Amino acid sequence: MYTQAMDLMAKEGKSEAPLLRSAEEIALQQRFDARIDAGEFMEAKDWLPENYRKTLLRQISQHAHSEIVGMLPEGNWITRAPTLKRKAILLAKVQDEGGHGLYLYAAAETLGSSRDQMLEALHSGKAKYSSIFNYPTLSWADVGVIGWLVDGAAIMNQVPICRCSYAPYARAMVRICREESFHQRQGFDSLLVMMQRGTPAQQDMVQDAVNRWWWPTLMMFGPPDDQSPNSAQSMRWGIKRISNDELRQKFVDAAVEQAKVLGVSLPDPELRWNEARQHYDFGAIDWSEFWRVVGGDGPCNRERLSARVKAWEDGAWVRDAALAHAARQTERARRQA
Ligand code: BYC
């Protein structure tokens, strides 16, 4: 009877009180911390603290969702690409994004969540995906700008993840970054052709797309460091190697120079070189817009989610057929054994 009080203490939600742990668990934790401090990579078979596992699962599954939701804005232009060459490039790029989603779901599965669970979280609106994919692609120039700015920002954010302490994620990122680099270059090339050889109307179309995508791209890096609840712990664990603000700054510095080559302006009157800092200063980001979009109220959130749910429902017969085929194969193998 007195032992019921032990349950009660747990229920009272004294979550800040340190958990009582076994000596074995403490030793495992110490070994994990030492390996992290030594810059080692963790594998799926290693003992991992529960919060490290949860944080990775959150980030990798969100990343996977971003890849497959990210197929939608560009997929919108496959049937309207202006030339056969551009259409072939865009098809390959959108397929690559689907592939990135698959590598990442596979990496997340090693942490103990099933793909069905992750997709359920996406379809029910519980899981996040990158804010950037909730903006519409209004013209062909948007496809080039997504390649140049959005994939450019993605590379800036993802190259450090190739050194993430969790090896299955890091390995997936090495391959993804190589492909992202091609994506960024095809976008830049498409814009350069329009800016250098296009009509004034095409040049205006590029400038309009840059104006619409610039600020949402800066938001992709996440909230400022002092408002980023996950950063400190993720940096401590070597999941994140460079902070949100530092990556954003590196991106701005690179993009300003690239914009000069393209001959487009960036929609920020406060953008100027700061000799003392050796970086470009830039204007204030509208974080209320960011949180609104992350919270589900961006220009295309509903459209994106319903497209993913429809794809899942329309694909039910494929999953059923694959399962029926696998069951038949197993049955045949059993009879022949
Ligand atoms: N959008 O504490 P913070 C691509 C959330 S795919 C939505 O800084 P963290 C591509 C954050 O999740 C690009 N939500 O978090 C694909 C957290 O909420 P929860 C995708 C965002 O995790 C197809 C809260 O805000 N890239 O490039 O330490 C075609 C507080 O933030 C966003 C990745 O996923 C956002 N932008 O840092 C073309 C990269 N930012 O989860 C291109 C991997 C923040 O606590 N992920 N939030 O409820 C990361 O590097 C990190 O997760 C982030 C955020 C830097 C994004």
From TrEMBL:
It holds the Pfam family PaaA_PaaC. Signal peptide: none annotated. InterPro entries: Aromatic_CoA_ox/epox, Ferritin-like, Ferritin-like_SF, PaaA, PaaA_PaaC. It comes from the Bacteria. This is 1,2-phenylacetyl-CoA epoxidase subunit PaaA. It comes from Comamonas guangdongensis. The lineage of its organism: Bacteria, Pseudomonadati, Pseudomonadota, Betaproteobacteria, Burkholderiales. The gene is paaA.
